[in-house]
Amino acid sequence: xxxxxxxxxxxxxxxxxxxxxxxxxxxxxxxxxxxxxxxxxxxxxxxxxxxxxxxxxxxxxxxxxxxxxxxxxxxxxxxxxxxxxxxxxxxxxxxxxxxxxxxxxxxxxxxxxxxxxxxxxxxxxxxxxxxxxxxxxxxxxxxxxxxxxxxxxxxxxxxxxxxxxxxxxxxxxxxxxxxxxxxxxxxxxxxxxxxxxxxxxxxxxxxxxxxx
Length: 212
What we know:
The chain has 212 residues and is mainly alpha-helical. 46% of the residues lie in helices and 11% in strands. It has a three-stranded antiparallel sheet with strand order 2-1-3. The chain has a two-stranded antiparallel sheet with strand order 4-5. A hairpin with a 2-residue loop joins strand 4 (205-206) and strand 5 (209-210). Helix 1 (22-51) packs antiparallel against helix 2. It starts with 21 loop residues before the first helix and ends with a strand.
């Protein structure tokens, strides 16, 4: 396999977050590293299967299932990187009012408070998954969406701007399952708004016209 295709687990210095313990982070980092490992393993398997000239029915079945599994493992790896990257120690709790993200939230939802309320409601939905604020690159608007198994529910072509892991492993050492709202509150107190702001892009279209 081409070693350029192999992924390396990133390191994140997040010790000392508010309301999210170092024990939770340590467990979470190991889980993330597992997604990196499995992504590389599945890429190696597909490369090996592609080198086999005679494709039997059994090989085709294996190939199909490996390809389907790759979406789960790869997105699990990438979404965790977005999640860890948009956290920081000593977070401010809210973005600056002159920031691009703040203006995007106001333009889309009418106010930052309305955006936050919607994002929080998505995060409180029953089930396991992710709450993600996407930006539509076409018109610059924001939408908060629920993602289930990493690869199911992603809005094609949209940019992940803020990613919150709401699988129970993200908070179960610190909070009871019914205390997810407390975890969401802790998450907001640790957001790296500069990172979130840097993810905002210029829209391609403005009011139906191409952006210059």
